[in-house]
Amino acid sequence: MRVPLHLLVVLFPLLCLAAHAQSQFDGDFWLTMSKDTKLLYVVGFVDGRNHGVNEAADALGTKIDDPRLAKLK
User: Fold this and answer.
1) I need a labelling partner for 14 at 20 to 30 A (CA). Which of 5, 29, 72, 73 fits?
2) In the structure, what pLDDT confidence band is assigned to residue 65 with cuts at 50, 70 and 90?
3) How much is the mean pLDDT over the chain?
4) Secondary structure string (H, E, C) spanning 19-68
5) Which domain holds residue 13?
6) Residue in 52, 45, 53 with CA at minimum distance from that of residue 69
7) Nearest residue to 41 via CA among 32, 30, 56
8) Residue among 28, 26, 50, 30 at smallest CA distance from 38
9) Angstrom distance (rounded) from CA 45 to CA 39
10) Over 70: is that where the pLDDT of 12 sits?
């Protein structure tokens, strides 16, 4: 199967941008955040983690106390 040249011309720069953008995220963003923004970030992380544990329990058809979920708590 041959990929049309115009498709490669469009997709190649997008792949390059995505690869470059990933290297820019090095953790220094935390230093520029205000205390309120840091608090929102941490609360959002914990809330998302708890939601994931609850979704895992539902997917397994168990409760949070299931030993299979012990490492997620």
Assistant:
1) 29
2) confident
3) 77
4) HHHHHCCCCCHHHHCCHHHHHHHHHHHHHHHHHHHHHHHHHHCCCCCCHH
5) 5-72
6) 53
7) 30
8) 30
9) 10
10) no
Q: Which residue has the tokens 């090095």?
A: 26
Radius of gyration of the chain (CA): 21
Nearest to 42 by CA among 50, 19, 5: 50
Amino acid (one-letter) located at 39: L
Tokens of 35: 């205390």
Supply the pTM of this predicted model: 0.53
Q: Rounded mean pLDDT of 16-21?
A: 57
Structure tokens at 27: 């953790």
Most confident segment among 12-21, 25-34, 39-48: 39-48
Does residue 47 surpass a pLDDT of 60?
yes
The span from the CA of 62 to the CA of 35, in Å, is 38
Average pLDDT over residues 28-57: 89
